[in-house]
Amino acid sequence: MPVTDFEFKEKYRYKNGFGSYVETEAVPGALPVGYNSPQQPPHGLYAEKLSGTAFTAPRHENQQTWCYRVLPSCTHPPFEEDLEGPFNLTKPYSPASLRIIPNQLRWDPFDHDDQTDFVTGLRLIAGAGDPTLKQGIGMYIYAAGKSMNSHSAFYSADGDLLIVAQDGVLDIRTELGWLLVRPMEICVIPRGIKYQVHLPSGPVRGYALEIYQGHFTLPELGPIGSNCLANARDFQAPLACFSEDFGATAASGPNSYSITAKFNNGLFVTKQNHTPFDVVAWHGNYYPYKYDLGRFNTIGTISFDHPDPSIFTVLSAFSDHPGTAVADFVIFPPRWLVAEDTFRPPWYHRNTMSEFMGLIEGVYDAKKGGSGGFMPGGASLHNVMSGHGPDAESCEGARNAELKPMLVGKGSCAFMFESYLMVGVTEWGLKTCRKVQSAYNEHSWNGVKVHWKRPEGASTDGHLLK
Ligand SMILES: [Fe+2]
Predict the structure, then answer these.
(1) Under a CB-based contact definition with an 8 Å cutoff, are residues 282 and 314 in contact?
(2) Is 151 known as a binding-site position?
(3) How close is the Cα of 344 to the center of ligand 1, in Å?
(4) Which cofactor(s) does the record list (predicted)?
């Protein structure tokens, strides 16, 4: 079925389409028609432009949204640094604090944390580059047990955040409207957009990927044609929704709204006397969106050999070099394998790209699950040119399997953040979390057997001129 059967039912309406130009108003007539910045916008609102790209970015890349709100975003006192911020990095953030090592790493499922909300429960596990240069990525684990305070909001000036829900439901209020994000759904919150995360089903855990440059887009389809993989129509944007609480008469009292900014991987906080969720209407193409991974139209071989895993790319953040991504978000959903005379799991591999993997649910077909294996809520990192591939048991199974049509990954979905950057691991990721599996290499690949048999009469010196 090309849609996930969610336990937690949808509660919002959306606008469908990836990269569409959207206009939405919670109150009729709130959007000015034909122009953007009237002398006095309708209903006494302020016009505020949110630029997601440089003004002069080429038209096909240009992203902006006009917001019509009760008060503009600048109306707050100065920010103050929150030195107790949750990123567990040497403060202030420095790329030099990352440990860049070639070891293959795998993590047991990360702990839930009942004491944190989405922001205080974000943990930078690995990354590369520098937000101040708008170059690089951050990879996060989140675990939260509490909804964010209803008088708080968070935004990242560092980049766009792709959130992969793994356990528990995220009910996300953004400036531009609400998104419900359940396991098997993802969302992207673009740089600068404020949001507040509620937990309607209890504690949550999941993964996130931040890109410090550019924006996510759909991969090219090439000879595949004009459909398949993630179809544009299946991405969903929120509808305008607003609160009224502002000024000296604010029901909640003066300076009761706490705004936290993530800025160069540090946190800064200000208090203001009005809700940030006061956007009555907006129009533009810079907005948060969500996507049901169950709608991904998986493509694979119908003859032999399986294509590169890029065939499973949902979203890509392009670098300046065509075809080489700052980051790809790739999934391994349930799919049919029919390849003849083919080693069907992912092949053994060394990659100029780095590969961070997580598991939303089920068992990944190239790795054993269960205790000490690759488990939902756990992760792995295979850095630039570090060898990886099926573990010994999976390899032997695949070498000897009867090659009938087979549905793999039923009830399962693994994913990968793949990047052209060499990725470093934080102190939290290497030590503090205490989830690194020390015997990952040994358990996975020590048992890989030698099957080589030199044919009779063949020599080892065939390269010599005779
Ligand atoms: Fe790989």
Answers:
(1) no
(2) no
(3) 14
(4) Fe cation
CA distance 217 to 328: 10
- The answer to pTM > 0.70 is yes
The residue among 13, 443, 73 whose CA lies nearest residue 272 is: 73
Name the catalytic one among 43, 151, 306, 463: 306
Q: Find the 102 Cα to ligand 1 centroid distance in Å.
A: 14
| 306 is a catalytic site residue | yes
Token pair for 59: 């038209």
Flag whether 364 is marked binding: yes
Give distance in angstroms: CA of 95 to centre of ligand 1.
25
Q: How far is the C-alpha of 400 from the C-alpha of 402, rounded, in Å?
A: 7
Q: Which of 195, 196, 215, 280 is nearest to 52 (CA)?
A: 215
Q: What is the CATH number of the domain that holds 428?
A: 2.60.120.10
- The domain tally of the chain equals 1
Report DSSP state, residue 254: T
DSSP state letters, 381-435: EE-TT--B---HHHHHHHHH---S-EEESTT-EEEEEEESSPPEE-HIIIIIT--
Distance 357 CA to ligand 1 centre (A): 10
What values do phi and psi take at 126, rounded to 5?
Answer: -160, 160
CA dist 466 and 463 (Å) reads 9
- For 413-464, what is each residue's pLDDT tens digit? 999 999 999 999 999 999 999 999 999 999 999 999 999 999 999 998 888 8
DSSP state letter for 136: E
Query: 254 burial class (0-12, 13-18, 19+ CB within 10 angstroms)?
Result: exposed
User: Which range marks the domain in which residue 352 is found?
Assistant: 294-445
Q: Is 23 annotated as a binding residue?
A: no
